[in-house]
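Hello,

I think I submitted the 2-phosphoglycolic acid job twice by accident. Can you confirm which output corresponds to this input? Input:
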Amino acid sequence: MRPLIVANWKMNPLTLAEAKKLFNSVKKEIKNVKNMEVVICPPFSYISNLNPSTGGQTPNLKLGAQNAFWDPSDNGPPTGQGAYTGEISPTMLKNLGVDYVIIGHSERRRYLKETNEMISKKIKTALKAKLKPILCLGETEKEMKRGKTKEVLENQLKEILSPIPNSKLLISNLILAYEPVWAIGTGNFCRSENTKKVLLFLRKFFKKTPILYGGSVNSQNAVSYIREAGFSGLLLGGVSLDIQEFFKIIKNLNRV
Ligand code: PGA
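Support: Only one job matched these inputs. Its output is below.
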């Protein structure tokens, strides 16, 4: 499988002009890259203005969202559905050309109090809307220091996935992202030999599911997660906004 590189722009950049510039640079760069799929996850407000296919086809460039709500609200009023102020449904995203959605990012768990139960419902609705959910899993620093990583991941997986029927839809679309909470946005990445142990543990339950690594990936360490640890791809935060560093990662991976 070719590596899946997911760029999580988080709440950046501040203007649509900057978002378009960044997106168009990526599009240009990706044209020469064949052996990976790149997913850009911009803030909701920019999605409808960023089109991977204008100005020539770039089949390996896709759009993703950073979140989606758990109610599809396909029926519209007056059923009472759609009464969720400020939320965006997966179907709305699909209708804008989005293919992927990040669900359960640790920043949402932390600042917005997203629970495993909420995340589970979001995964279920995203699958129904034909989106590929990227489910984020990971332990905190305290949990890691206490040697609880595997236990935490197992519990997250159990609580999130057990309410979802083990359908073909789930098996062929779910993507996992191992993102140690302590590694996100800190520069304190998890060494590839340690992530490999976690990956092998996850592989006991998920033989074929793509599993990504995320957390302070940079142009120096990126290749090691794919080549040495064996991950299916990367979830990039900060570095995806630094276009030169981001391109370095793409170039290095293109040589793998
Ligand atoms: P980071 O973020 O690469 O800035 O650590 C990763 C993420 O939030 O998914």
